[in-house]
Amino acid sequence: MKKAKLTLGLVLSLVSVVGLTACNEATYSDGVVLTYKDASGNKVSYTAEELFGDYQRTSGVASTDFDHIQEVLIRKYYESPSRASVLKALKLDAENDVLDVKKTAETNASNNKTSYQEEFEKLLDSAGAENVDELFQIKLYQREKDKFTTDYESELQIEYMRDGKNAAGENMFPYSAEYGRGSDGYLKDQMPYTVSHILVKVAGATNGDHTSAKITETESGKLGNVVMLMANASKKAKRDNFGKIAYDESEDPTSAAKWGLLSVMDRDQADDFVQEFRFGVYAYDAIYNKINQNVATNSYAQKEIPVPDGSEDKYKVIENIRYGSNATYTDPSTAQTADEIAAGLQPGEHYVNNFFKSEDYSNIGVIPFGAAVALASEKYAKKPSLDFKVNDDNETYLPRNILFNKYFNNHRVAVIVPTRIPADDALDGKVTKLSDNTELSGVNYSKANELKLLKGVKDDDYAALDGFAKDTSSLLTVKDANGTNVNCLTTEKGQIVLAVRAGASGNYEGIHFIVIDRSALDEYVTVNADGSYSRVEGVDPAAYPTSDLNTKTDTTSLSQYYTIHVPTDVEFPTYEKGEEGKSGKTTYVNPYESHNKETYKGFADELKGKISSYNSNKDTFIFQSLMSDGSVTFAENAQAKQVKSLVLSWIRSKRNSNAIKGRENFDESWATYIEYLTQQDQARALKDDGSQKLVSETCALGYGDANSKNKTGEWAVGGACYAK
Fold this sequence. Notes:
- The protein contains 25 helices and 19 strands.
- The chain is of the alpha+beta class.
- Among the domains are: 2-153 and 171-187 and 616-666, no CATH class; 523-605, no CATH class.
- The chain has a five-stranded mixed beta sheet with strand order 3-13-12-9-8, sandwiched between helices.
- A hairpin with a 5-residue loop joins strand 10 and strand 11 (485-486).
- Helix 2 packs antiparallel against helix 3 and helix 4 (84-112) packs across helix 6.
- The longest helix has 47 residues, at 638-684.
- The protein is globular.
């Protein structure tokens, strides 16, 4: 039964295209062209007239004919005697749908002071119906179509689509010379990331202004305080977790209600995320995995992340971002390079390309914690009350704006480190004052040492805070201005907090603090007793299902993490939790104990929708499978052979076209982002003479002093604080 439903879904799309392709090239006879057989052995055959007759009669309206063919096939499916009870229920639903339309007409007539008939005619027109009988048929077909779609996308099939393997362990979407490109399943092809964030809006700061954007006193205080909360600067006995801070502080109400958790960021839905967000996550994760992963021992392939090709100063999409000098992946549907052929690789084997060709580009930005401390202080957030105007009240020179522009107004993803800045960033009464041209431990402030000074020097008070307690040197190596290793700000689970200025004007314009709850590159992750996360290295995937790791620890594979079940389902992944017995594992569906059953269901349904719709070629793969096992057959006559040839040609073309389109979209998006960063870096760059558009911290320290009043010193014409 299931196969019959699947087959119909394919036939209705494929025959439509065949009709379009062949209508002017051949006249089909009344002979059988295609036969399909359901799970019970029942056969249904279609003649050329049944499949293409209507198209041949009305070839000028192709889209209408496609819809008509689809309707004919689905209606015929439900008219089968074996489905009489199903059709009866669908008709009852359709009758109720018609009654709802009539009730709406009555309501509209009452509200608009018009007649029932007038309002009902409007509703008929909007539905494309001439009368009640046609309206009923339209509603019935919609019910049939919805039922048809729901039935063939069972939970089991969705799991197969997710993992790329069917019950027999065979590739769900295999490559074939006849049918073209294959697919590795949702997890590998779509690379889902689970991310959470905290948004601090800076609505007044112009998005394209890289050096002189302006924030309010409230925004300044909020920005600084959120960073201090994440670090537990108030030294609470029990540190607030990232989710709690997001719930209380984030200005994205939708994700805040879910403790900062965002929708899964996969390749198809990545456009729902601003480019700084999605590419910032990719950039960080690539560097992280470059340090920690070895493709030679863990060949879990991940495809199609956009990357810059530094050798050609262009950008392309690579096939795999795992690393290893001799690592390869297999995709028989793409051509090999000359180097790969010369190296003796088998047909379809390819080298793994590095994510970054240039180590220089792979640098992630660095934000000193001291900058956040300063922004949170009233001294810098509030505009001083003065009896004179500084630089004619040019707000670019307000202390909060100086610090915001230098450290947070950056569209390159950054980490936060426990260092001080060349400014007054007092914490616990400690004050450091340094001007930009001061020697800092023997390092002169120059273009060559700009990055070192932007990081500042490590502060023991900051480093002792909970947020900097985790040793992150194995994840990223970051040094302060003196060359001392410093840790990055992490959550209570040990996740590095990423910060980026992102978004166009609107709801998401601001500073995003991001954590990767689950990377697409982490095949196994363990949740420790204290709630922290650990990657699981060196696990043999073949032994994983029966190992203690699976049954006795809260460890999830990617497949388990992205379960489509809820904790009350018997299929939900569990482990033996000591004397407590079986306990549900930590997954995307149940990230926080505070969520209720309905929340779990919402997450599971979201995943089902993403997985079931991710593969735009899905129907062609099902058709390929059904052809292989004999459920769908073409007749041996000339017309049928021609139809089959056209079908296979169309499938290959469709798969190839979709793959190229996906690559081009990623390529263009990545290139646009890199170009934007290049423009930003040029605008913010320190020139050879030591000048730059970014205003010096010296001006933040001296705002309101005698020099700023008298326009002397750094505030004189040509000085660092002189308003150009």
